[in-house]
Amino acid sequence: MSMNDSWYRASMGTAAQRDSLRDELKADVCVVGAGFTGLSAALELAEAGLRVIVLEAEQVGWGCSGRNGGQINPGLACDHGRMVAELGVEDARKVWQLTLDGVGLLRNRVARHNIDCDLKAGILLVANKPRHVPELQAWQQELESLGYDQLAFHGRNSLQALLHSDYQAGVMDMGGGDLHPLKYAHGLALAAEAAGAQIFESSAVLGYSELSRAESGIGIEVRTANGKVRAQHLLLAGNAYLGKLLPWHRKRFMPIGSYIGATRPLGELATQLIPSRAAVCDMNTLIDYYRLSADNRLLFGGRASARDAQPDALRATMRQRMAGVFPALAEEDFEYLWGGQVAMTLNKAPVFGRLGQRTLYAQGYSGQGVALAGMAGKLMAQTVLGDAAGFDLLARTRHWPVPPGAPLQTAIRALALLWYRLQDSR
């Protein structure tokens, strides 16, 4: 799968093209990665008056930020109870509030910068099996105990008015929603540039190093094939696509392949299938997630993989899963089919950290990155500006290191996915 197969790319129209770095430049902050995290940080810092340079190996939104399911969720991918165990009641509540603020930040930026990205409210979490129903109700009660009042429970019968498919129950979250992620990424980029940030595409970072006092001041030198940036701070915001720029023992995540198909425009059938037009996510460990596009396509995602999936087998599997949810689509194929890497951590909490005194990183959103990545970028920016409270709070979460070596990582991912499939088959 490649970015060129994406319906998001096909529906973008003409996007701005940016030069690659071919000079030696200076900045207050150098950001690696022009996805949600890096663009959010760049926008925040540029609006604060700092000189910001963003280096992107491909194009704006090329990675997971421009390929994901477009679903907006408050919270982390792990449950709140895990954060309570990690951080204590008070600090776990602060983390929850940060995730709510992340959703608010996204909506505010869409409105303030007039970003045309098909943003709408409403996301359904649905129970596949009877054993999921009490788990769903407990999740709702837990969030309501935190003061969250956007949730409504629907039993099997009333759920049909929102989603015409065979689930046991569902909870509608009007605090969540969905959007066109690539359009949103490009909107953030234009907003950051309007605030004064510079973004260079096709500018893969080959390496970086801290400068000594003898080398014209303490700072960071970042190298690409044809240029350099000297900055006081470096933000590593490439998530699953950072490669070797972050030491293996600091990544704390493994990339998992996830895939999305887009049907033809379905016309009136689209609203018959999802009368609420809400985004939907199920409760399996290896989830199906789907939503309707503005032109009435069904965007259907899932099919986690430890390796690159074979296109023909992937298409057949995805069609089968879609037909399992919507039998009326049994004869439908996908006009577009694409994939990308999701950075998954073992505990499903994100990874925040520092390298030395001048380099920050944030990653491992575990499928929850549409709103969370934007907040991560803002927290990195706030840290540069002198307020590290939110960043340091999330940096306290503990993560198991990931073993080095691609073959071993692939084997571990395959075993983990097999275990998840066994869990889902119960």
Please tag this protein with its features.
25% strand, alpha/beta, eight-stranded mixed beta sheet, FAD/NAD(P)-binding domain, 35% helix, 13 helices, 426 residues, nine-stranded mixed beta sheet
Structure, briefly:
The chain is an alpha/beta fold. It has helices at residues 7-10, 36-47, 80-87, 89-112, 132-145, 156-159, 181-194, 248-251, 268-273, 311-325, 369-384, 389-395, 406-424; strands at residues 24-32, 52-55, 71-72, 120-127, 151-155, 169-178, 198-200, 205-211, 219-224, 228-236, 254-262, 279-282, 289-292, 298-305, 336-344, 351-355, 359-363.
How would you characterize this protein structure?
- It comes from marine sediment metagenome.
- This is FAD dependent oxidoreductase domain-containing protein.
- One of its GO terms (cellular component) is cytoplasm.
- InterPro entries: FAD-dep_OxRdtase, FAD/NAD-bd_sf.
- There is one protein chain.
- This protein is α/β, with parallel strands linked by helices and 426 residues long.
- The protein has a single domain, classed as FAD/NAD(P)-binding domain.
- It contains 13 helices and 17 strands.
- Strands 3, 4, 5, 6, 11, 12, 13, 14 and 15 form a nine-stranded mixed beta sheet that branches. Strands 1, 2, 7, 8, 9, 10, 16 and 17 form an eight-stranded mixed beta sheet that branches.
- Strand 12 and strand 13 form a beta hairpin.
- Helix 2 runs parallel beside helix 11 and helix 3 crosses helix 4.
- The longest helix is centred in the N-terminal third of the chain and has 24 residues.
- The radius of gyration is 21 Å and the shape is globular.
- The model has no long low-confidence stretch (mean pLDDT 91).
